[in-house]
Amino acid sequence: MKLAAAVFPTDETLPPHEVAQLCEERGFESLWFPEHTHIPASRATPYPAGGDLPSMYWRSLDPFVALTAAAMATTELRLGTGVCLVIERDPIITAKEVASLDLLSGGRVEFGVGAGWNREEMRNHGTDPRNRMAVMAERVAAIKTIWTESEASFHGEHVSFDRIWSWPKPVQDPHPRVWVGGNGPTVEDRVLAFGDGWMPNVIDDDELLGRIASLRSRAGYDVPVSINASPRRPERLERYAEAGVERAIFYVPSAGRDEIEQRMDAVQDSWVQVCG
């Protein structure tokens, strides 16, 4: 099982290229940045984790700009969106951004996608929250079409365009893996419909491992799984590794170098206990 880091890069924290360098120096396999274009000041949608929403949610940098900085400062580190809110993005522009990052990084992109949780944020981008899953499915399908066809066209209910030329194409063949984020009751359907892997947020281990087994049974193969916001307890990590989880993604603080290094040390100490 691979160890990965995730962080909200902001205008107040350690710059993304320096976080990336720390990850690569310490042997982390990948670095993942989440996305929020903004947070509506009304705060009508409650924070899923409870309590006050941390400021990093509205201070976060654009993930593709931040990941490009990370790419230029590293050579092997894989670069992920955890997750890109495709329901708030134009699919033609997003296809070009991901492909451009894949080209500039030498094929190191992991494309995590999701529908988000903040309903006012979605509406500000013109997406009806009631339709967000259908919108996500069509936008991901359109993005893949642009990546893989020299003259792409797409016609759906939520995305439609006639023949277009769009380069660059991704370096990875046929394209970067699409990781479907989320824990909702129908997320497995989305993974099977348009994903290359599942990126659940950590939940009760018995439930999570049961859902992984069920998903793989439905698929007929070992669907790749990356656990987002992974815990550090060695006994839990050992269960994930035994279940064939591909990577555990650990959040590090949106803070300065010292706090990030301390969290990275704690993660690595836990993994050493698992590996013996």
Q: Can you offer a commentary on this structure?
A:
The chain is of the alpha/beta class and 276 residues long. The protein has a single domain (2-275), classed as Alpha-Beta Barrel (TIM Barrel), CATH 3.20.20.30. The protein has helices at residues 16-25, 56-59, 63-72, 91-105, 119-124, 132-148, 187-194, 205-219, 234-242, 257-275; strands spanning 2-6, 30-33, 78-85, 109-114, 152-155, 160-164, 178-181, 197-199, 226-227, 247-251. The strands form two sheets. An eight-stranded parallel sheet has the order 8-7-4-3-2-1-10-9. A two-stranded antiparallel ribbon has the order 5-6. It is globular and about 55 Å long. The model has no long low-confidence stretch (mean pLDDT 97).
Short description:
41% of the residues lie in helices and 17% in strands. The protein has helices spanning 16-25, 56-59, 63-72, 91-105, 119-124, 132-148, 187-194, 205-219, 234-242, 257-275; strands spanning 2-6, 30-33, 78-85, 109-114, 152-155, 160-164, 178-181, 197-199, 226-227, 247-251. It is globular and about 55 Å long.
